[in-house]
Amino acid sequence: MELTMTTVTMLACLQLKHFAADYVLQPAWVLRGKGDLRMIGGYVHAGAHAVGSVPALLLAGAGVARVVVLVLAEFVVHYLIDYGKALLSRRSRADASTRAYWAMHGADQLMHQLTYAALILAALA
Cα dihedral angle (28, 29, 31, 32), rounded to 10 degrees? Predict the structure, then answer.
């Protein structure tokens, strides 16, 4: 498969969105809500990721129906990844000085990046 400017631009858009949504735009109430299905924070966070992916998906020239399906898929997958990480983090009691914390953080980020690879492939198909 040929690497195209569209693919690279989509990836760059998703990376910028990910940085903003995961590291800049997360107030404490969002962070607290990620591991509790009854709290809105995790849903707001996953929604920000999903909506933030729209420009990258539109670059692929995907139709509106495909973009809607991909945005909904990202919302669900992003929520579940973060929910799982929150549950594991609470059970492990790992902090930023431990290998367990960084392994969980790295696994979380890897799963999000693999989600972006799948989104790009699905949008370009």
Answer: 120
